């Protein structure tokens, strides 16, 4: 199993949790972004810089992951593809995307995007807080204990 990070939008504090988990559990961690990233020196941690463009990082992840891998992303369409590929997906707030909830989340995301495009709704989710970070760390630990 590998852990993939949709790294362009992943909060730094979540990356730090993942760096530590990778070392602790000896799991390969791959950060995919369209910009250069700094990571701790480790044979388990690597970065892949993809060209700029819409969904280029997402497409790279989907094309290279294996069934059973874990993907960290807040991108619901990416999570949908990950689930279809028999892999696992979790967002930076510690919520897993599953076969049971992904279609409903995708529908809600599309609805909110439509509202934003008409100006009826603005902004996105609130900033990550301490309880979000804790929820992510706990969910990751439970996952790694079961699958790692």
Give a brief rundown of this model:
The protein is of the alpha/beta class and 148 residues long. It has 5 helices and 6 strands; from the N terminus they run βαββαβαββαα.
Q: How would you describe what is shown here?
A:
With 148 residues, the chain is an alpha/beta fold. The chain has five helices and six strands, in the order βαββαβαββαα. The chain has helices at 12-25, 56-64, 76-84, 102-117, 130-147; strands spanning 2-6, 28-33, 45-49, 70-72, 88-90, 96-97. Helix 3 links the parallel strand 4 and strand 5. It starts with a strand and ends with a helix. The mean pLDDT is 90.
Topology:
Blueprint: E1 2-6, H1 12-25, E2 28-33, E3 45-49, H2 56-64, E4 70-72, H3 76-84, E5 88-90, E6 96-97, H4 102-117, H5 130-147
Parallel strand pairs: 1-2, 1-4, 2-3, 4-5
Antiparallel strand pairs: 5-6
Helix pairs in contact: 1-5, 3-4
């Amino acid at each position: 199993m590998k852990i993939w990070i949709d790294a362009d939008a992943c909060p730094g504090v979540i990356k730090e949790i993942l760096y530590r988990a990778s070392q602790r559990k000896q799991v390969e961690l791959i950060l995919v972004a369209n910009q250069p990233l700094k990571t701790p020196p480790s044979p388990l941690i690597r970065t892949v810089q993809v060209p700029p463009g819409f969904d280029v990082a997402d497409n790279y992840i989907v094309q290279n992951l294996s069934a059973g891998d874990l993907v960290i992303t807040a991108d619901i369409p990416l999570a949908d593809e990950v689930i279809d590929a028999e892999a696992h997906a979790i967002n930076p707030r510690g919520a897993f995307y599953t076969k049971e909830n992904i279609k409903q989340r995708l529908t809600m995301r599309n609805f909110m995007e439509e509202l934003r495009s008409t100006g009826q709704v603005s902004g996105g989710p609130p900033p990550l807080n301490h309880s979000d970070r804790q929820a992510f760390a706990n969910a990751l630990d439970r996952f790694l204990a079961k699958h790692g």
